[in-house]
Each structure stands twice: as structure tokens, then as C-alpha cells.
Amino acid sequence: MAEVGRAAVRDPVALLPGGFWAAVAVWLERPQVANKRLCGVRLDARRSVGFPRAEACGHSPNTSPEQEKRAAARPCQRSPNGGLGPGPSTGPELGTAGRGPEESQLRRPQGEDPREAAAAAQLAGVPGQPGKVGVGEGDFPASDLDSLWDAFSRSLAGGNPEMLAFLTGSRAGSQPEAPSELDVVLRTVIPKTGPHCPLAAPRREVVVQDVLNGTVTFLPLEEDDRGNVKVEMSNVYQVRLSQSQEEWFISILIFCPERWHSDGIVYPKPAWLGGELLARLARWSVESKRSGFKSTLSLISIIKYSKTYQMLKEKYKDMVKVWPEVTDPEKFVYEDVAIAAYLLILWEEERAERGLTAKQSFVDLGCGNGLLVHILSTEGHPGRGIDVRRRKIWDMYGPQTCLEEGAITPNDKNLFPDVDWLIGNHSDELTPWIPVIAARSSYGCRFFVLPCCFFDFTGKYSRRQSRKTQYREYLDFIVEVGLACGFHVEEDCLRIPSTKRVCLIGKSRTYSPAGEGSMDEQRTQYINSRRGRPMSPRGEAPAPPAPRAAVGHAGHPDGHQAPDAEAAEGGAEARADQLWLSGFHAREKAERVRNCASLPRDFIDRVVLQVAHLLLDGEQLHTGSAPSSSSKAWNRGGSLSLAEVARKLDRGTLQRLKRECGGLQTLLRNNHQVFEVLNGSVHIRDWREEKPHRQQCPEAKRRLFSEAFKTRICWFFSHHPDGCVLPSDSCPFAHGPAELRPPQTPKRKKQVL
Length: 753
Hints:
Layout: E1 2-9, H1 18-29, E2 38-50, H2 65-73, E3 76-77, H3 114-124, H4 144-159, H5 161-168, E4 181-191, E5 203-210, E6 215-223, E7 228-231, E8 237-244, E9 247-254, H6 270-285, H7 302-316, H8 319-322, H9 329-354, E10 362-365, H10 371-378, E11 383-387, E12 402-405, E13 421-425, H11 433-441, E14 446-450, H12 470-484, E15 487-493, E16 502-509, H13 516-529, H14 564-574, H15 601-615, E17 639-641, H16 642-648, H17 651-658, H18 663-670, E18 675-678, E19 681-684, H19 690-695, H20 699-707, H21 715-719
Parallel strand pairs: 10-11, 10-13, 11-12, 13-14
Antiparallel strand pairs: 1-9, 2-4, 3-7, 4-5, 5-6, 6-7, 6-8, 8-9, 14-16, 15-16, 17-19, 18-19
């Protein structure tokens, strides 16, 4: 045994030892957070067991020593169906075989949310749960963890006192002072794949958590050619929490360091465990923040997702080179690739569940650049995208990608009865309407939404619960809409380069097809109740509607009552040509630029001079001619907060800036030649400090910088009291009209995909 790292943990707010177990849970359930070489993990089973004890493995009156020796040495064998075969029968003290069925299920920690417990049960594969994680990937049946632990317990108590001492944290040959309950998890660790690193085989391991002693031990499993599965003794390591007087320590220990084999992926080098992992565990242990979101990719197979994502990434990576939009291609291309990979696996597993062969059809509402539509269509799913504004990149996809320019207004003319799925990927003002449109299109229509901007049915969403983040509150609102429309709403977290990456999915209904009429009345009443009525708590039914005479039918936005017979016989016909809720405004076709770039040049120049005057302590600025040379030190000016700068500007200027996104801060950042804005403060940029930074930039950025060299007049040469701090040959901007060069416009290669 060797200790590869130890860290003292300061706990000023008394979060330990609970914070330690929260940190362990991250490493157990989301190891890719710390080890970027991992794609993820599956939790296959979880059991509560006891420590193996030597006296429990003594000679039984009915068992000979030779029989016990053979039983202890017998590995756990895989059954013909791919799982572990039954292990030797044991009593209650040796494992879980002697416990009742209720004790063999997942334990829910005290105070855990029942919804989280249900999700954990789904991941663990508990019988009777609708989980599908790992289906068809050679999983061990959850019940076979008992057999595996029983076989391992016998081998420990019968002939491996060193490993038993490592597990218990005691001296070799000694026993735990008191029986301790263990939490044993069978998990599958999934490596990440890449173009130069094909997907390695997933590795299974048993994780033993001893809460009483503050240890968690990771035991890798190996399988021989005959299908026998046993614990591999080489790569065993343990994370331990200990206390000395009033100081806490977290340690990482390796059972047999001389036999440690590092594959660089699932099992890193001991130095990484004692350095990187230990530092993260120590930091996580004293972080009081808890995420209100589920772990990533909790509804689909991580292995299938990893393979599909890498395939799509390799197939569509050339889009980055020919991207004609002004948006960042690295972000948008790989984000849409990841969303497409998720949907393809989600739909593949749905076809397996329903016994379907035809690929699902879809419509992407507010499709934007249309890349998601292009990928899904190319991969064989019939569908189309609709957006109010055409993009340049649409012409590059080819005729097989169907993209339409048009506005979607929530009414009965914009329904999709023949479509399987509606997609809302950052669909803005349409986001809350997508569950409604899906519900009214057909009973079999499902939806997938990835909310970004916060919109209600007829405008911006207004916060009502300050104890939640705005993002969490808005997600809860979309869940509420889905419930009111009659959907079972599921939530998952995608792996995309975005801060808004939680998706909501409605795959099934809460009612039978015969109840469509009454459910549509409930939808109508809920939509109308959004006129200033408070939201229901998450997970509860919507607030009771107002009396029928006081609530207008969806086809009567003025509040007049529709006859009940008409609503029962054909609510859709009654709503024809009418908005489902008055006040909805589709996005304008012409996108208004609100990043201060469209402001008049003289207005921008005036604000820049005003702010520079403030930062230079009121020193007089030049307004067009080069300053005279001076021998005094170059004036770098001071630093002011954005609030202090705003207080010095006149009211008319501020009101004009407020109509732009980001306001004053955006304008100053746009003028990066003059100002540097950092952490809410602004100061004059000193270009002597920029040259070392430029040399460290990637080659692509250095090339762009060289193309823009001397294409603009130097602001400091023209306006600063001391002139430019750099000599003319070093300054990237022109010192006078004579040095100006014409701008170079890079030509993009056009390509039809």
C-alpha cells in the first residue's frame, strides 16, 4: 500500500464530511468532469452489504475444509445470457444473498428527492423500472452484483488479509471494530473515442463506499476467456477522509503500486491521481453549491452517443472551414453535431422500444442556420426546418435538405399532424408554444426543446421565484407547460459548448386518445391563465381554471364563451384562423443589429472621447491632428467602474445606449483599440503590453492580425495628449493617412454539402 497524495482541507463552514461524499459522488457518477479522457459512466447496480469477516468463513458443520477452499477460489461465472451466474450460497453475514428482496433494491439516502431516487433506480437497472441505460451492451444483471460480492468476500476472508485490511483501513490480520454497512456500486467506465483513438472497451469496476470509516475503494473487474469475472488486484485504489485533531485530510492510496498498470484513459498514472484528482476532490468537498440539474446524457446510452458523436464530427467537420455566417463556426457546428447525435440515439432507442423500423420524421421550428436539419436529414430522417429569416448557409446544403422561410404563428393553420417530432433548438418566442403545437398536431406527436432565451406565451418571461435561478425557473415553467398539455416531460443535460444545455422531452402522454377533447380544454384554460396568473409549483397540476363563463375559448380571444357542444365536437375547427392567445408576435424577418455597431459614427466617436477624457483625469484630448512630441512619461490614465462612467454621461446618451444589447460596456469593448474592459472596470489600453500576448496567439489569429495591419488610423496618434506609445513601425495602426493600407477581404471557398 502506498499513499500517492494527501491534501489538508480547510472547512470554514462545516461542510465535511458531507461535502466529501458529495465530491465522491461526482467522481463516481460523472468521472468525465475530472478526467476529460472519459466519455462517462453507467451505474449498473447498487447494493448495501456488510464487511466480510473471518469468523463468518469458518468451518461450517456441514462443509468440509476442501469444499470451503474450492468455494473461496471459485470465480463468479457468466451465465449463457451474458450475466454473472449464481455464486455460492451464503448467509446474511457474507453478503446479500440472505436478505429479503426489499433490502436488495437501491437504498434512497435520507432526504433525497423522490424524483432523483427514481432516476437513480432507472440508472441502476432495478427490476420494474423503465430504464434502458446500457440495454444491449452486455450489462451485468443487477441481481448478479450479489454473486460477485459474495465470491469476493469469501476470497478476502479466506486468504487475502492484506486486501481486507486495505478495505477496512485496519492493520493486516485485524478485523473492523464494529460491523459497518457498505454501499457497493457496480459501474461501467466508458472511455472517450476520437479519430486517432478508437473507442477502447469499457471497463467495469466495483466501488465500495464505507461511510463510517470515510473510505471509498475502486476495485477493477477482469473477465477471462471462459467468461469468469473476478476482481483484479492490480489497479485498486482508495480515497480516504481522515481527521487529525481539528484538521481534515483527503488521501489517495494505491493497494499495490508496483503492479499498477496505467492505460492513460480509464486508469491514469498515480501522479495524476495524487495531483489532479486529489486537488479536485478537495475543492469539491468544500463547495456548498449544488447543481439543480441532472447529470449529462442520463436518458440515452453514453457508449452509443460517443460513437455517433465522433462519427458525425468527422463527417461534418469541414463545415467549419466553409462557414459563411458571422457566428463562431467552432461553437455552432459542434453544438449542432452534438444535438444531432443525441437525437439520433434517442430516436434509435425509441424505435427499439416501440418495435418500429421506419425512421422518425421531424420539423425544426426556428431552425436558424439549418445545420441540425441538414445532419438529421442526411442521416435518413425525413424532415424540414422553418425559420422567419433565410441564412446564407442554406444554399450550401443542397436540395436534399428542406428549409423554409416563414413565420410560425400559434394557431390551427400551423399544425403538423403527420410529423413524429417537433424540435425547438433555441427557438426563443416559440419555445413555450412547441409543447402546445405538438399536443394539438396529433396524439402521437412528440417534442424536444432546448430553451435558451426566456419567453412566455406573449412576450418576455417574468420571474416570480427569487429563490431559484432564472434559468431553473424558466425550465420549470416549460415543464409545467408540457404537463398542462398532457405530456410526461423528461429532462436531460446535453454535452454542448453552451451554458444553456438542458433539454426537455415529451415522448408520451398522460391520458388516452379518448380524452383528447377534455385535455384540449385544459390546455386552453391553462394558456389563458398565463395572463398574469401565478405559476404552479414544479411537478404539480396547473392552477384550477376560472369558471367557464369567465374564460374565453382559444378561438375567442376577446373572452366570449364558446358553446360546450362546439368545443367537444371540434375545438380545432372553432379555433381555425384564430390566434390561440392574442398578443403573440413572431420575430421580425429583418434582424435588428443591437450591438452598437449600427450607431452613428459621430455618436460613437463622441462617447469614446468623453470616456477617454474621464480616464485621463480631464487632460485635454486632440480632435483630429497629431499631438506635438513631449518628453514627459506617457499618461496611462486611471481606472473607473462602468457605473462611475455612466454617472458622468448625459441622460440622452445613456438612453440611446440602453436600447442596444450591452449598452455602454458593448460600445467600449467594440473600441478595443482604445479601452480595456475587465471585471466591470474600464481603463486605457497600453499597447506595449499587447505585443507579448499577440505572440502567444494561435497562428490563425496572428494571420488575421497581419491582414488588418495598418488598415485603420491609430486613435492614440490622433487624440492622446502624448501621442501613441509605440513607434510607427511597431504600431499595428496607421500613424497618419500616408501609412494606411487597403483592407484585405478573405475569400471563402464555396462548397455544396
